[in-house]
Specification:
heterodimer, A: 292 residues, mainly alpha, 11 helices, 68% helix, 4% strand, globular, B: alpha+beta, 8-stranded antiparallel β-sheet, 30% helix
Chain lengths: 292, 210
């Protein structure tokens, strides 16, 4: 079966696929349009990556994916989509736009394949989930900054700096910084966790151990890199260092740390892929395809 | 089966039209969040003998623009200076929780026994009571209490419906930061609990819409 435009209205299966494709494209367009108009460039970029990955995976499997929804799944899908569209037209917030992809994924699953086929779309749903749901749900409830302050203090102490800490306050010879929730690194951790899921879905690893430690490595890298940033900011906290402090705190310098974390994770994942591709020990007779 | 398939196609056709309409609307609709309603400070809200009151500006330079009011009272010859500052943004609230919460060693956290938590700090010959008074009553003093408070996360159907229509935010991050200043040694802990409860109780009625 090819995925060409239906030649007649009676070519119903193909028409169904085209309608679902049109709905999905429209929903993605709404998401990216609203993010663009809200000047949320960073989340817009991440969303493009996630939508692209999910879209390309679905496109590759378009001929084999089940599209047999039942009335109950259709009803639930319509309900979820109605809620999404209603909120979209009534003052959408950045938090809503963060959970929007997952809600859209659930709605499309109900409309297209039915919830009985969720296993066939599990990885795509997981990607849309990690894109924004953990950040929205957990960030306001978790004050991670005391842990970040501890790491920053430890790094400074290890580097021979005379440093003290009270809760989230770090005192270095340069001055005092308060590690607030925005600087706790939680957002970068969620970001790298999401990227680790993308990597695992796009370039799967055979080893279960490597699959488990991939998100752990992503979270640890984000945490440590942010801790280094906090330590640097503590050293720049004096009034004479106001300009460099601003550069590393909220200017391009702060983005360099996130970029470093992403690059390091990419390097780590590449090494893990190399390990994963090593030939199996001689006593193991299964070939790679069998292991898959 | 054929009928169901035809019905599905019809529904999906309508959904596609609706999605197209919403996308068109998303191109031009206003995305500006309306400013929160201002807090109208009553001239004499406390239950005690009122002396005077007036606008108050927090001493911290970064919070100087926040709306606040100061009151002076007498409660059976006990002089009380009270301030309130209305904060709507979670990040600003975070700073207050850091300033008044249990980070410093000489801060004591207390519960007035009626759903009100507050902090107690002795500064020289003055006793300071601080707490975040919530819109539905009660008060909190740690960020954890604040984040998990039913005021912050309201999942009632009516609230969710209003949120869906863009009439109210999903989470309510508003705090009225109340502070009481009294002479040290003015009373025991039970007295302080009573004083805090008397002070915070009238305020929820004065909160504007979120």
């Amino acid at each position: 079966m090819s995925f060409t435009l239906p030649s007649t209205i009676s070519d119903r299966p193909r028409l169904l696929r085209w309608l679902l494709l049109a709905i999905a494209t429209g929903l993605i367009a709404i998401h990216l349009t609203l993010l663009w108009r809200m000047d949320n460039a960073s989340f817009w970029g991440v969303s493009v990556i996630f939508w692209g990955v999910v879209g390309s995976r679905l496109w590759e499997q378009r001929h084999t994916l089940p599209l047999k929804s039942d009335p109950l799944s259709m009803a639930i899908g319509l309900l979820v989509l109605s809620v999404v569209l209603l909120k979209t037209t009534a003052l959408p917030t950045s938090n809503f736009l963060a959970v929007y992809p997952f809600l859209v994924g659930v709605a499309l699953l109900g409309l297209g394949a039915g919830f009985g086929a969720w296993r066939d779309y599990g990885k795509e749903l997981l990607l849309l989930f990690v894109l924004g749901v953990p950040k929205v749900v957990l960030s306001p409830m978790l004050d991670f900054s005391p842990v970040t302050a501890r790491l920053g203090t430890f790094l400074l102490w290890y580097g021979g700096v005379d440093v003290q800490r009270w809760g989230t306050l770090i005192q270095s010879p340069a001055g005092i910084v308060d590690v607030n929730m925005g600087c706790s690194g939680l957002e970068t951790i969620f970001y790298l966790l999401g990227l680790s899921m993308v990597a695992l879905v796009m370039y799967p690893l055979r080893s279960p151990l490597l699959r488990i430690i991939t998100p752990v490595i992503a979270a640890l890298l984000a945490f440590v890199i942010n801790g280094i940033r906090v330590a640097l900011l503590a050293l720049l906290s004096g009034p004479a260092q106001a300009i460099p402090f601003k550069y590393w705190h909220e200017g391009d310098g702060s983005l360099l740390f996130a970029l470093t974390a992403v690059c390091l994770f990419g390097g780590c994942y590449w090494v893990m892929m190399e390990w994963d591709l090593r030939p199996a020990p001689p006593l193991v007779t299964h070939d790679r395809e069998t292991l898959r | 089966m054929k009928k169901w398939f035809s019905l599905r196609l019809g529904i999906l056709g309508l959904v596609a039209l609706a999605v197209g309409g919403v996308w068109g609307r998303s191109l031009w609709m206003s995305l500006e969040t309306p400013s929160p309603e201002a807090f109208i400070f009553p001239p004499q809200p406390g239950p005690w003998q009122w002396l005077d009151s007036g606008p108050y500006h927090p001493p911290e330079a970064e919070n100087a623009e926040l709306p606040g009011f100061q009151y002076r009272y007498h409660r059976e010859d006990l002089p009380i200076t009270a301030t309130v500052v209305y904060v709507t943004h979670p990040h600003v609230n975070e700073k207050y929780f850091r300033s008044y919460g249990p980070i410093l060693a000489n801060t004591e956290i207390r519960d007035d026994g009626a759903g009100g938590s507050y902090s107690l700090v002795t500064a020289g010959d003055t006793l300071l009571l601080h707490g975040c008074i919530r819109p539905r009553g009660g008060s909190v003093i740690t960020y954890r209490q604040f984040a998990q408070s039913p005021d912050t996360i309201d999942l009632s159907p009516s609230h969710l419906w209003n949120w869906l229509r863009g009439q109210t935010p999903l989470r309510d991050y508003r705090c009225l930061w109340g502070s009481l200043q009294i002479p040290a040694g003015a009373g025991d802990e039970v007295f302080l609990d009573t004083l805090w409860e008397e002070w915070r109780s009238p305020w929820p009625a004065h909160f504007p819409r979120p």
